[in-house]
Amino acid sequence: MADGADGEERDRGSKGRRGGRRGGGRRSRREPPQLSVAETREWLSSYIYGNITVLGAAIAVGPDEIHHGVAIWAVLGTGLLTFFAHVLAHIVAQGFGTPDDATPAARRAAVAEVVVTARPIATSALIPALLYTAAWLGWLAPGWTQAAAVVVLAVRIGFVGVFMRRRSGQRLTFSALWGGVVLAAVALGIGIAKVLLTH
Hints:
Elements: H1 2-30, H2 37-60, H3 63-67, H4 70-94, H5 104-123, H6 126-136, H7 142-158, H8 160-168, H9 174-198
Helix pairs in contact: 2-4, 2-5, 2-7, 2-9, 4-5, 4-6, 6-7, 7-9, 8-9
């Protein structure tokens, strides 16, 4: 009888482990890919840089450009061209110190890493482009649309501290939230200064 009970316990335990593996597999597919500390730093750098760059483009356009749809291509072009320039620069820079006998697979992995960490530069233009598209279609007023695009980009930058805390597994603190507010204000000032100095 004891042997039978032990066998049943082992069967239930193995089923539970199999179920846990299946459940864990489903959860892992929903989670974003894990990045190393160095890759996360590159991702954050691209995220902040991309949002500030697109912020400058979103501020620079005028009501007429928003009304005629030019603003859509201004923010999209800024995000995409900055993304490609960033990727190209990193690919060229990674050639320094790379051995000549590096395998094609290793080189492709290096390029893939650069593309993944630089992706926030391109995606930062998506929401402003959608807002300016809505204004071009006549669904939103140009002035309110531009204000919304600027606020969205500033808020995205401001939440960097929250992301960093969650990513590192640390508890969210008031100083992290306040630091995000300061960072958003600084980014907004950089965006405005960029417009004033280049237009």
